[in-house]
Amino acid sequence: TAALIWNELIREKITNFIMNQSKEERILNFVLQNAVQGDPCSVMDTIDKYCAQKEWAMNVGNEKGLILDKIVQEVNPSVALELGTYCGYSAVRTARLLKPGARLLTVEFNPVFAAIAKQIIEFAGIQDKVKLLEGPSDEIIPQLKKKYEVDTLDFVFLDHWKDRYAPDTILLQECNLLRKGTVLLADNVIVPGAPEFLKYIRNNPRFQCTNYPSHLEYMKVEDALEKAVFLG
Fold first, then answer.
1. What's the CATH code, domain 60-230?
2. Is 90 labelled a binding residue?
């Protein structure tokens, strides 16, 4: 917690003031200057390098990213949803594994983050597989069926506000967006933590849960991903 407070609240604000730009803008510039355009893996590696060596950022990261990769490949989704785009790292990571014709809808509340993510997604060359939806998740989820022609979702990655994990999971069910076999994967269930979400899905007979211990992105702090398969 102390490390997060130092990185997110103190160091970042000082650097923003000195450089007159946000951390997210610095990540974008580093990608544009150092990554290979049209190469998703190069974009991911460049972001990982920046966040490990220069400034910490809340991407899923390279260690937990391998767990995300494994589950995306197992599910092989036709329609995937990501809640929390941030700078587009996990959208790039997920989209590069999608089969032809598959699509990822990624939702970002912060317009500044959305604008940066859009540029990173386009630079990585995976914009044909990704649709970025800007706005609050609780407003966008009910629009998915009619406005975005989603029947049901095969895979959902939760990586936005942790207190939205449980209500948005309930909302996905209420909107009939989950089918038997839909896989939900939630990041940061230990740090910062999503206790209400874990309590909800682990005590719900409609979900089968698996925990994947790991570490907080770019740190040695213990964290985990939680996988929940919807049983219908």
1. 3.40.50.150
2. yes
